[in-house]
From TrEMBL:
Belongs to the ATPase A chain family. GO terms for molecular function: proton-transporting ATP synthase activity, rotational mechanism. The chain crosses the membrane at residues 32-49, 83-107, 113-133, 142-166, 186-213, 220-241. PROSITE patterns: ATPASE_A. The keyword NAD does not apply. It is found in: Cell membrane; Membrane. Its main location: membrane. GO terms for cellular component: plasma membrane; proton-transporting ATP synthase complex. This is ATP synthase subunit a. It comes from the Bacteria. Key component of the proton channel; it plays a direct role in the translocation of protons across the membrane. It is a multi-pass membrane protein. Keywords: ATP synthesis, Cell inner membrane, Cell membrane, CF(0), Hydrogen ion transport, Ion transport, Membrane, Transmembrane, Transmembrane helix, Transport. The lineage of its organism: Bacteria, Pseudomonadati, Pseudomonadota, Alphaproteobacteria, Hyphomicrobiales.
């Protein structure tokens, strides 16, 4: 029987924390892997040390720090560095949780839309509130591109407003869809290996191709894990730049 590729995304309750307004608050496997990701990040950053000649963990921590810092400077300028804790936390959480999710029999946190939507909405509201806090009504320049002829300006403004409020949708769906589709494909090809391998010598020969594809997809998923964390991070920086420099 073929393995169910959707089973790996099932959220299961581990224990009940309490109740609020008749609604159960449960600690799930998704919550556990979120805590695990935070614990891994904390161990990496706290246990890296501050040696003059960095070791492996310190080198990874320093490379991660400089990578995110350079991304912020190149997209939002030096003023964007005030958001470094937010951007760095998002990048490390997404990257580490994606990598953990590649390990067999684990859970991929970012494969659920509710998680990616929560992260995208966090970025959206920070951009919105900070944009008005820093620029006041000048923040509306974001919706009025310079050099647009007056007769099509209302249409352009409408399009800009709609695209602005759709940013959390594209921001969240991009990460969710890529991780969901990749893991489904990986599970399907891996199940073919087990099915064909159970048929004997002939099946073993037939399982060579799906086994090779499974290995290739696993390598691709490692790349996608970092790539999607980077894409989410750089889009966050671009949106923050809109709040810092509206209309530029």
């Amino acid at each position: 029987m073929a393995a169910d590729p959707i089973h790996q995304f099932q959220i299961t309750k581990l224990f009940t924390i309490g109740h609020l307004g008749g609604q159960e608050i449960a600690f799930t496997n998704s919550s556990a892997y979120m805590f695990l990701s935070v614990a891994v990040i904390s161990l990496l950053m706290i246990g890296a040390g501050r040696q003059l000649v960095p070791g492996r963990f310190q080198s990874v921590a320093e490379i991660s720090y400089e990578f995110v810092a350079s991304t912020i400077r190149s997209t939002a300028g030096s003023e964007g560095m005030k958001f470094f804790p937010l951007v760095f936390s998002l990048f490390m959480f997404i990257a580490v949780s994606n990598l953990i999710g590649i390990i067999p029999y684990t859970f991929t946190v970012s494969s659920h839309l509710i998680v990616t939507a929560a992260l995208a909405l966090l970025v959206f509201f920070i951009v919105l509130f900070y944009g008005f806090y820093k620029n006041g009504l000048k923040f509306f320049k974001l919706f009025v591109p310079s050099g647009v002829p007056i007769y099509i300006l209302p249409l352009v403004v409408l399009i800009e407003v709609i695209s602005f409020f759709l940013k959390p949708v594209s921001h969240s769906v991009r990460l969710f869809a890529n991780m969901l589709a990749g893991h489904i494909a990986l599970k399907v090809f891996a199940s073919f290996v087990g099915m064909l391998g159970a048929l004997g010598i002939v099946g073993w020969a037939g399982a060579v191709l799906p086994l090779g594809l499974t290995i290739a997809l696993t390598a691709l998923e490692l790349l996608v894990a970092f790539l999607q964390a980077y894409v989410f991070t750089i889009l966050t920086c671009i949106y923050l730049n809109d709040a810092i420099h509206p209309g530029h």
